[in-house]
Amino acid sequence: MHNCQILRTFATKIENLITMATQEETFKKIVAHCKEYGFVFPSSEIYDGLGAVYDYAQNGVELKNNIKRYWWDSMTLLHENIVGIDAAIFMHPTTWKASGHVDAFNDPLIDNRDSKKRYRADVLIEEQLAKIEDKINKEVEKAHKRFGESFDEAQFRATNGRVLEHQAKWDALHQRYSDAMNKMDLDELKQIILDEEIVCPISGTRNWTDVRQFNLMFSTDMGSTADGAMKIYLRPETAQGIFVNYLNVQKTGRMKIPFGIAQIGKAFRNEIVARQFIFRMREFEQMEMQFFIKPGTEMEWFEHWKQFRLKWHKALGLGDEKYRYHDHEKLAHYANAATDIEFQMPFGFKEVEGIHSRTNFDLSQHAKYSGKKIEYFDPEMNQSYTPYVIETSIGVDRMFLSIMCSAYQEEQLEGGDTRVVLHLPAVLAPVKACVMPLVKKDGLPEKAREIMDMLKFDFKTTYDEKDSIGKRYRRQDAIGTPFCITVDHDTLTDGCVTVRYRDTMQQDRVRIEDLHELIRKATDMKLLYRKLMTE
Ligand code: ATP
């Protein structure tokens, strides 16, 4: 290699390492910020926490509730054919036999004998695939820099020797991996790990155990005596609570196909490797909607929900370029189409939501195991059938994390000052306005309280009189409060306050009677609903 080229390659490598380190650093800061400013705490922290279980704190719970409201309303308010339910977490154990979770909700796990660390075998191999992909992307990036505007990426990918070599390696590994996963051939998964010389990131060794299956469901006993006790599970998804209630809802609600049932609730998975903060938890919350349709119309509805769900995400204004679809190549046994909506987290594009065409698998299975007829009589066709289902399934916690990651910013201000600010969408912000008397005397606190009392029925409002105004602004910036309202001596005579805006830091003099409308205009969820309803 030419000296210049060696230097360029070296520089690119360093650049990439720096970007990765910076992103990792930013992520650590976001996690620390979540704790310091009352968004997310480790569960039972006084006992050193519990792996991959977290509590939402005073600000976190407000943000989370706002996310849930946005989702719930956009399903049940905006769609007259979608209704909600709230099913119990405990369900009859046969539910999980019928759904396939008892037999097939497994992850292949492998241990490293030296570090005693446990990994998902499939994740180790997927990381290896990602490394090859990374190499290809770096070649493309380098060539892009070299050729500038005239660069033809498609042609480069189809003809460059090094890219083709990496691509052939990727294709072969991917094929072998897909075959092994489809057959759940555990010996083959181990052999791939050995052949690819994958090492444990902690010990650096290849001293692996065999690959074993691990069921992700938590179980417990229901009943007072050991003899009479029944083994039940904590639900690993909320969807089954909807399927087993399909007939009840359809009949009591006189629902006509197509119609949907929405639900928000906790789900539990005994994840083997839990990491990346609230991205992969053992207790988490899902927002799922099952849409029941006529067989044969599933591709049309799948496309419809794919579009609608992406629009829902984009309406928040976090940046359209931060989302992408990831269509599944390997489909679950019950699905005939599936895609993920991925969001650009500091640790890469990651799944936030899944949209699945589940055929009539679940309803048919429940009909088989319960012995009940679970069908729909279609008056137009004058015949009965088992409805097909399109599912949209999003994790509240991953949604929360994506919002925090895109909102968090460290800003350099004029005069060398810095501030940490959460540019949260105003409609989701935990606190909409903070009212602050300039000083703690001369009747200003009383006036500030009066303003707060006027606003608090409609908006989450707080009051702060401690420290300098500058420090109080910073505290509100750090939790993403869009409006700070300062009451000063002039307020008592001119009936105006100073409104300071979080994002621009600009200040305006506003009449007290105009405050309500000013805040409403920026924080009303109807703004989002209207966006969703326009084409
Ligand atoms: P992954 O591949 O990341 O394990 P999954 O495909 O198993 O996710 P689904 O079963 O499709 O996830 O669940 C739907 C949604 O529930 C996911 O898109 C995600 O937002 C959320 N979710 C799933 N598992 C977890 C978890 N352990 N912690 C937090 N959220 C989760």
Note down, in words, how this protein is organized.
42% of the residues lie in helices and 23% in strands. The protein is α+β, with helices and mostly antiparallel strands. Helix 2 (58-76) packs across helix 13 (396-407). The mean pLDDT is 93. The structure holds adenosine-5'-triphosphate. Adenosine-5'-triphosphate is lined by residues 237, 269, 271, 280-281, 284, 286, 351-354, 393-395, 397-398.
Largest sheet: 7 strands, mixed
How confident overall, as mean pLDDT?
A: 93
User: Helical region count?
Assistant: 18
Strand content: 15-25%
- Shape summary: globular
Structural class: alpha+beta
Q: What small molecules does the structure contain? A: adenosine-5'-triphosphate
* Spatial strand order of the main sheet: 3-9-10-16-13-12-11
Uncertain runs with pLDDT below 50, 5 residues or more? Answer: none
Estimate the helix proportion, in percent.
Answer: 40-55%
Distance between the termini: 54 Å
